[in-house]
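Hi all, long-time lurker, first post. I run a small reading group and we've been trying to get comfortable going from sequence to structure in the token notation. Rather than ask abstract questions, I figured I'd post a concrete chain and ask someone more experienced to write out its structure so we can walk through it together at our next meeting. Sequence below, copied exactly:
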Amino acid sequence: MTMYRPRGRLLTSRRQVLGLAAGTAGGALLRPPPLLAQSPMAGSLRAQPRRLAPIAESDALVAFGHTGPVTDGGWTTAHDRGVRAVRQAFPRLRTVYVESIPYSADATRIFRQFVAEGAQMVIATSNYGDFIRDVSDRAPDVAFMECDGHGVSGNLGWYYITHWYASYVIGIAAGLMTRTNKIGFVGSFPIPSVYAGANAVLLGARSVNPAATLQAISINAWFDPQAATQAGTALAENGCDFLCGIMDEPGYLRVAQQRGIKAAMWNTDMRQYGPDAYVSSVVLDFRAYYVRQVAARLAGTWQAQPHFLTLGHGVDRDSWGRTVPPDIAARADAMRERILAGYNPFRGPIRDAAGRLRVPDGAVMDDDRIYQWDWPVEGVSGLD
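-- Answer (accepted) --
Happy to help. Here is the structure in token form:
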């Protein structure tokens, strides 16, 4: 595998997020939903998909554009595992990647470089918007995929993870384990993936503990260990005894370990950095999904489409930490099993932080609506 290093600054801000997680993470699955649930949201945006010619494995080049370093231990590490799975599945195929692609014209230059090098498939592991769309429009015979994208064209599709269900399940554990009723959340930016994560945690917590609240701190970065540690410390000093968030590294988990409180993480299993504090993680695993997409491109059957990767087939909770009481784990997992069987817990009435009714009684927020969540629910502070 070849790595190109882009010129310019390394990225500290990034995508809105995604994944494909280990279906074995903590128990048997009950009638899981389809691996790829097509989103109707982008249906009106979708152009007629182009039929791209098949490619011999020995002639194929697949390029990956990453938003952070592959050694971050979180988001980009999870994607890099997917890249390695592709290499293992197709040993004669070539892969290249670039780390820490900035959200600037440099991104366009790098994606163009992939095409110039002969890549027949380009996968951006974050949302690069017009920076990738401008390139895909000019390379109609190349397949483009954008994680957390929003537009679909003849040769550009997007994919994302329904991480909010795993966050809801972990939120149930948080609601049962907190003694102060204060949950702390370390976020990056006030964007839909962060709102969805924070809101899901608190809604899960309030389903078992109506007194629970969630205080968020945004650090304007996805990978900034110092800032995440400072935010976790501030939340703990404000009385939060359960920390969670949507970071790419374990800064606030270390804070929880030092202070004797609990924490839930994101992206990967990070319990080694705080074994007594670790409750679980929203875990991502892109391996099967990437292998499937590359196989389709080689066969000439790939089509640009919008897809959600679903609970148990793209994202899940990690196995519970060693200090999580079995009865609490069982109560949280009862909801996980209901979701796997088709239940949606995001149902009204749901009010925003100002008390306004946003989801009426009896209404349900589907994945498309959650994917675009841009307001904090009642009880969440620090994001609006």
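A couple of things your group might point at:
Confidence is low (pLDDT under 50) at residues 2-36, 42-46.
The longest helix spans residues 75-89.
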